[in-house]
Design goal:
By secondary structure, the chain is α/β, with parallel strands linked by helices. It is built from 18 helices and 19 strands. It starts with a strand and ends with a helix. The structure holds zinc ion.
Length: about 500
Amino acid sequence: MPASQTLIRGGLVLVGNARFEAVSLLVEDGLIAAIIDGDGPDEVPVIDATGRIIIPGLVNGHTHSHGALGRGGVADDATLETFLAGATALNGQRSTDDLRLSAQLSAAEMIRKGCTACFDLSGELPGPSVAGIHAVAQAYHDAGMRAVVAPMISDRTLYQALPGLLEAFPEPMRAALAAITLPPWQQTLATVREAIMRWPVPMTRVRPGIGPAIPLHCADDFLTACAALAEELDLCLQTHLAETRMQQVAAQTRYGTSLTAHLDSLGLLSPRFSGAHGVWLSPDEAHRLAASGAGIVHNPMSNLRLGSGTAPMRMLADAGVTLGIGTDASNTSDGQNMFEATRLAATLSRAGAAPADQWITVPEAFHMATEGSARIMGLENVGRIVPGWAADLLFLDRDYCHYVPLRDVLSQIVLAENGAALREVMIDGRIVLRDNRILTLDEPALARQARAAAARLDAANTDARLKSEAAACVIRSFCHAACTAHTHT
Ligand SMILES: [Zn+2]
């Protein structure tokens, strides 16, 4: 079969994530085949990119597709722990079609905001199913996105995960919460293995991963079994690591050491391991992560929204940890805008009035949002525009106000862009967004389905929501007291 070729002509291209040049790009079979000075050959179909700035697609190192259907359903005063208590109310009673729909909504939002690849810790309650995992993978495949679909799995509820939490509840609530259990991890992991063995789409663009949700929510045997499966099948593994102070306090109680030191002792840290958030990591933990080649995905918007804190990105970068950027889901982050997350990665590092040499620079933030996240996804040729790398490209309108006048292009992208200047998106050599329309998804139909699904699910989950709201008061005061007591010991 002859190679499919396209020539992108007339754009201002970020070459090698280093410099902008007026060059043409020859795209062949989903890859950048050549960077050409001048107009290039005439016999190849041409995309006219006159007036466009062309950059690599942004890579979302951490999100949850199930969050899209939960949009707007997280209380204004939610912390991570109260949000987790409400997970059943927000994500319960979902059918396979609901899981697919949520992934489609999630993909549509990411494409519209310049994201071409994502690491999705997709959740299903009470545990994963082969059909559910496959529905999410199929959704990304059909949307034309690149993704790692890692079923988010655990075998302990929040009440089993945090030592002492259950005892903070009065009866009969305590007994009711104690009675909630999750499926045994052996059963859960067998389902994940089966889903991977019967993967429904080619693994070139959408591949599986392993997603033990939070270390405290997984038995140690479960965690080591997850790592063994990732090793056996050559997959990436991601967990939520030190997202909140409460998690580190609970780790001291449960493990007698930090979260990362504990995972290190279990043999989990490796180049295939990444932790989402990493807000409460110590220098010792940073060194353990760096020494093992593991990564951290920064989710600044979600951390702000849930009051989790500010991740020590300078410390992690200086320690040599592989760093990526993520949005987290549209429930806790209220949207999946990688431009905003990248901008925050740069600017939030300046919030504490630290000296300028401690800031995350524009090139550092952009690197994290492209090559950094791609490396965490296990993608070796994604995130920069050079021959042999993926033709995952964003086309920005250089006449849009963010770029008028145009001086420092990368700085203006990282510090000003929010997606408003995005005009076309190419993934794997194929245009998926053009003329303000996603070519791979029927957005009006998705909107109709989403409204109907939300109304049905909210009604079905009313009882769970009332219970989680009642539990939230106790959880909030328990976490506050535990963290305060820890500070004074
Ligand atoms: Zn998350």
